[in-house]
Amino acid sequence: MNFTDIPLFERLTERMNWLGQRTRVLSQNIANADTPNYQPKDVKPLDFDAEMRKLDPVAPARTDKKHLVGTVAPVGEFDAKKSKKTYETAPVGNAVVVEEQMMKVADTQLNYNMVVNLYRKHIDLFKTAIGRGGA
Fold first, then answer.
1. End-to-end CA distance of the chain
2. What is d(CA 35, CA 94) in angstroms, rounded to the nearest whole number?
3. Long-range CB contacts (within 8 A, 24+) of 84-91
4. Residue 54 · residue 110 · CB < 8 Å
5. Taking the model in full, what pTM does it have?
């Protein structure tokens, strides 16, 4: 069995790749903090919730006529607010704020660790299901 053929693992891998690419771009921003007229860049946001909705929905199934009919409650959405592109610009035209970039790097690292843990937990579930036990 190849785990990359499972839609959940495909989405988790895609998210890890996106986070890795974002780390590279943010690192370039920090490296160019003193470059005149350099404008910070960021990768296009990956809507992980939309990616997860692409998976086949799991709906309650009525397997016996004596069972109650299940319902799935709608999930609310949060309003997304756009943040400022830059907080400040240096006299030489450089708009990189190192503190802002470092916060983005830290957030990216936390998200990457979360996705890795999700991936690991799902692998452990498969190990348990086939009788090898999770770690």
1. 20
2. 7
3. 86/39, 86/40
4. no
5. 0.66
